[in-house]
Amino acid sequence: MAHKLTFTARDRLKLLLGGSAFALVGCGGGGGGNSGVTPPLVVTPPPTPPTPPAAFEPTVGQFKNAFAANFEIGAAIQEDQTLDADQDSQILKDQFNSITAEFQMKPEIIAPTEGVFDWTVPDALVQFAEDNNMVIRGHALLWHQATPDYFFAGTPAEVRTRLESYITEVVTRYKDRVFAWDVVNEVITDDNSASDPYRRSNWWDASGGNADYIDWAFNAARAADPNCQLFINDYNTELPGKRGRYVTVIKDLVDRGVPVDGVGHQMHLHVETPLAEALAAIDAIDDEFMGLIQHVTELDISLYNDPGSCFGDQTGCRADYGDNIPASVITQQAELYRDLFEGFAARSSVTSVTLWGVSDAQSWLNNFPITRTNAPLLWDRDRNAKSALQAILDPDFTP
Ligand code: G3I
After folding, report:
1. Catalytic machinery residues
2. Spacing, Cα 334 to ligand 1 middle (Å)
3. Residue 360: what pLDDT?
4. Phi-psi region of 352 (alpha: psi -120 to 50; beta: other; left: phi over 0)
5. Which of 18, 174, 330, 353 could bridge across to 296 with cysteines, CB 3.0–4.6 Å?
6. Alpha-carbon gap, residue 342 to 83, rounded angstroms
7. Radius of gyration for the chain, computed over Cα atoms and rounded to the nearest angstrom
8. Residue of 273, 271, 277, 187 lying closest to 235 (CA atoms)
9. What one-character DSSP code corresponds to residue 359?
């Protein structure tokens, strides 16, 4: 007599997990059969989980080639990233055709002591660019930061002579090798109630309480390299007040024949930056000065739309997402990057777009305005391409 097969819950679980479908026939009772034959037990395998989409990986050259007809694709780098062993080196070579020294071509690095020049790192960065068929943006000849105090000592005439000498040394050394220089960086005030558009800085004071230093810098750079594109560069030009003051200063310089070739927009943005305001920065210059070149010089998109107090006294800053960045924020960032690059490509005056770093691991925003996990760039901390890059490159991709 055939024995009725009885299945414990464990057995059934094994069957289910076994994923094989088969009919079991036994004897004895069983529901439904007319001859006492146990109805077949058909076990259907669990549905195969959908294959997760492969992580996006740009093909070699895809980023820089996608915009080759519009603008260079740049990254701010530090010397160690030029070394083959560095995690970013291959991404740089594969995807970018322009570099900017994040800090190693500033006065405090090149001339830490008056009359003493250290060309070691700047030379290495310029050579890396040339060896890898990239251009290099010089950053920055004059800034109120990263500049040793000796630059500001003495009478305005002495300050002028020293500044002109420094710029002549640097621009001459890289003549016909550095294609563009940020001649002056961040000379516009952020104060919307200010009586004039100029930042009150050590340069303002050292010049005798005026902005003459801007003329001195541009004229010295032009004399040293007539072929180099000379830029004024600033941040927050996506804010109407700062943008208006920027236009005022540039108009004054152009009207007086100061040799300004281009306008740099740093574009340190955040996920809630209105696209229209970012693009209005470019349009405001095009509307006023046909013929000026425009570079997006330090693009990154912070995850956090902090209040002003966070930048002032580090209060009210948005809470750190840590490792739990909301998907909605990642989508916001990807969509804004996509729309920005579409907008830049539609504006012929934009001839260079530089990201302020290669991967999220490098970003200055991990420590500014507070120490916090940020992810403002196009490759993540593990050097995987992010959805933001896919959104820029793949028109069929929905972030
Ligand atoms: O790499 C050295 C490290 O070896 C050393 O131990 C450490 C302490 O001395 O310094 C490290 O170098 C620092 C470097 O950032 C890399 O982290 C420099 O001190 C520090 O001055 C430098 O800060 C740079 C800053 O400009 C000042 O030059 C930031 O990287 C850079 O992102 C920032 O970039 C500016 C733009 O030039 C202008 N627009 C705003 C933007 C952000 O502040």
Report:
1. 186, 298
2. 26
3. 97
4. beta
5. 353
6. 32
7. 30
8. 187
9. B
Domain residues of the chain, as ranges? 62-393
Q: What is the pLDDT of residue 46?
A: 79
| CATH value of 62-393 in 1.10.760.10, 3.40.630.30, 3.20.20.80, 3.30.420.40 | 3.20.20.80
Report the alpha-carbon distance of residue 263 to residue 279 in Å, rounded: 14
DSSP H/E element including 391: helix 387-393
300 lines ligand 1 (CB under 6 A): no
Q: Which residues of the chain have pLDDT under 50?
A: 1-7, 9, 12-34
Alpha carbon distance 123, 318 (integer Å)? 40
Is the Cβ atom of 146 under 6 angstroms away from ligand 1? Answer: yes
The string of pLDDT tens digits covering residues 329-357 is 999 999 999 999 999 999 999 999 999 99
Q: Which three-class secondary structure string do you get for 232-248? A: EEECCCCCHHHHHHHHH
- CB of 103 within 6 A of ligand 1: the answer is yes
Do the Cβ atoms of 93 and 116 come closer than 8 Å?
Answer: no
pTM for this prediction: 0.88
Neighbours of 45 (CB within 10 A): 11
Q: Strands 293-302, 262-265: parallel, antiparallel or unpaired by DSSP? A: parallel
182 lines ligand 1 (CB under 6 A): no
Q: What's the gap in Å between 345 CA and the centre of ligand 1?
A: 30
> Which residue's CA is the nearest one to ligand 1's atom 20?
103
Among 183, 191, 206, 202, CA closest to 145: 202
Name the β-bridge partners of 352: 72, 295
State the pLDDT at residue 23.
35
Q: How many CB atoms lie within 10 A of CB 152?
A: 18
Query: What pLDDT does 37 receive?
Result: 64
